[in-house]
Model the fold of this input.
Amino acid sequence: MTPEETAANRAGMNLTEDFAPAGSPGKGGPEFLVVGKLRRPHGIRGEISMEIFTDFPERLRSGITVYVGEEHIPHQIRSRRSIHNGLLIAFQDIDTPEAAVALRNTFVYVRADDRPSLPEGEYYHHEIIGLQVVNDEGQALGELVEILSYPANDVYVVRPPAGPELLIPALQYVIVNVDLAAGQMQVHLLPGLLPE
Done:
C-alpha cells in the first residue's frame, strides 16, 4: 500500500492503510502512522513537496504538529497548499531550501492516537493484521499476516499452520464478517482460492 491511510471502497470492506507502500508491516497498534513522504524543495522559502499517503489530507493544516523521519522529529506546519497530486508543505522551523533539502525522501507521520475514527465497516490495516481467518463453516484457515494493496482491491495474505500462504481478495462477497473483539475474520472462499 502506499503509506498511512489509502482507503478505497473495498466493495463494502473499506480498509485504510497506515503503513508503507508494499503493504502492512505487522499487527498491533502503531504509535505513529505515515501520512506522506517529503520529496524535493520548492522555491526559496523552505517549502517542500509531499506525496500524500492519507485519505485525510485536510488534517495536515497550518498549526498542527507532524513527525518527520524515522526519529519522528516534531515539526509544526507553517503553511500548506495543493499541487498536482500532492502538497507543498512549509514547516515553522524550516525557512530555506537548504534546510528543506535535508528532509528530502523522509516519511511524515502523525500520532496514531490522533487518527480520525472510521465509519462502521471500515478498518485500519493494523486493526486486522493478526486476525484468525476462518471459512463459512468455521474451519481455521490461518492468520492474516499481510495486506497487499492493488488498484482493484486489497489482497489478504493468510498464513496457515502448515502449507503455502493463501491469497484472499478483500471483496464484499468474500469477506463475510470481521469481529475485532473476537480476533476473527470469516471469509467465503471462491473456487480456486485454496491450493490443490
